[in-house]
Amino acid sequence: MLILAFAPAQYFGRQQDDLLYFLGARSLLSGRYCLITSPGCPPLTMINPGWSMILTPLAALTERPELFSVFSALILAACPAALWAWLRRRTDDASALLAAGVFASCPLVLAQSGVVMSEAPYLLALLALLAAVETGRSAAAGGLMALLLMLRTAGLSALPAVLIAPLRERRWRDLARTSAPPALAYGLWAAWSWSKIGALDKAELMVTTYGGNDWHKFLGIAASNARYYLSEWGGCFLPAGRAGGELALAMGAALAAAAAWGLATALRRRGDDPAAWALLGACAMHSVWGWHYERYFLPVMPLLLWALAVGLGRYAKPALAVMLVLQLGAQTLPRLGKPSPWAEPEFQETYAWLSARPRPALMTSALFARDGWHSGLPSLPLPDEPTAEVFASDLKNWRVRYVLRASGLDVGLDKDSTSSLRIHLERVDSHLSDARFFRRVYANAKEKTEVYAPL
User: Fold this and answer.
1) pLDDT tens figures, 232-244
2) What residues have CB less than 8 Å from 452, skipping those under 6 apart?
3) Less crowded by CB within 10 Å, the N or C end of the chain?
């Protein structure tokens, strides 16, 4: 009920990927998997198709996003019950119920209520996968592992949880049952992606992050991610005004230390514990991935709460109860019933101006799918060219009429100032400032946006 009360926590399309899943579901109805809001309907290789496939029946009923938001809120609302059902097999009933309450009242969870993203269905599939592995159902585990990978490539982090026991015990038949379905599913997806763009999108992102002489960035990215997620978790138990400071980091670090102790304890008891290996895999993945968003924390939180309960032992119930009270009192209840801070698009006035432009008109921007959707215009991604002349030539060849530029855009990057994406955006800003090729046709100081037209 609490999760549903916060829906919709964000306007549709805020994270862009939610819009892409929605558009992917609509395109699947016509037998394609492509971005229907861009000329030529380019293939949607940047997002795995599992969530869009699940949403396809809704797309057959309506082209409006509201029903998708309701369905997504219901999926997320089912997660605390699934967490409780999984935890009560591993700990006492009171701890399981308190942990489920901590998850359900977490501001990071409530901020995703009604958002058409894949983390909530991924979490349900992950808990079902762990239950299947724990009860020795290898065929079911293989199918659920395939589903995880089709929902998010992050499902690779759960592979150790599935494979460690049959490998240690040399149960080759079980190993084949659990590994064949995900290998087949991801192999088909990879083959399709390769046939369309000659690459795998997630692999390309890793090369972009660490390519050339940038592999030394690993430690910096790991430290940045750790600081971000620890601060986000610790901040859930503090008033909103103090949620981003050093106290939040310290609280998150203390919780993580208790969870680490619980993880070590669980592995001492059982070296192939699937939940422990799933948590290790998730931590390893987020150590190297060059992006961080609060939504990434959702599938990891249940594993951390379990490890925390193991680490605290007989103190788990009072500690979880205190966490629940602090979270409810500091953030959740004060926000209940109030408008979401993300209820409306940040660039609403800019979108209205673009929407009023004469048709036909094509636009481009850093978040082109989101910006195009709210502007009512077809859109294309920004080209990456070394000079303003070639950049402008590309736009003219593609018949782009408007380029939306937003100052201080947060794209969730670690090492943001030195990332290839930030360098690309700064290069675009430099191109747009060249009066030989571009003219500014709109500016909004409040929204920190500008619109340029190629000359």
Assistant:
1) 999 999 998 888 7
2) 402, 403, 405, 432, 438, 439, 440, 441
3) N
**Contact indicator for 37, 378 with CB cutoff of 8 Å:** yes
Q: How far apart are CA 348 and CA 371, in angstroms?
A: 10
What is the SS3 assignment for 20-64? HHHHHHHHHCCCCCECCCCCCCCECCCCCCHHHHHHHHHHHHCCC
Answer whether residue 212 shows pLDDT above 80.
no
With residue 333 as reference, give the H or E element that holds it: helix 333-335
Look up residue 298 and give its two tokens. Answer: 């959702």
| Helix (H) or strand (E) segment spanning residue 438 | strand 438-444
Measured distance CA(452)–CA(455) in Å, rounded: 9
Tokens (6 digits) for 262? 């619980």
Tokens in use for 224? 């940045």
Q: Could you give the angle at which helices 316-327 and 301-312 cross, rounded to 10 degrees? A: 140
User: What's the rounded Cα separation, in Å, for the pair 92 and 317?
Assistant: 9
Q: Are 70 and 80 in contact (CB under 8 A)?
A: no
pLDDT band at 414 (very low <50, low <70, confident <90, very high): low
Angstrom CA distances, 393 to 317, 360, 397, stand at 64, 19, 6
Q: Which distant-in-sequence residues (6+ apart) come within 8 Å of 15 by Cβ?
A: 115, 117, 293, 295, 370
37's CB contacts (< 8 A; 6+ apart) are 23, 369, 372, 373, 378, 379
pLDDT band at residue 373 under the 50/70/90 scheme = very high
Closest to 371 (Cα-Cα) out of 408, 346, 342, 397: 346
Distance CA 380, CA 403 (A): 10
Q: Count of alpha carbons within 13 Å of 420, Cβ hemisphere only? A: 15
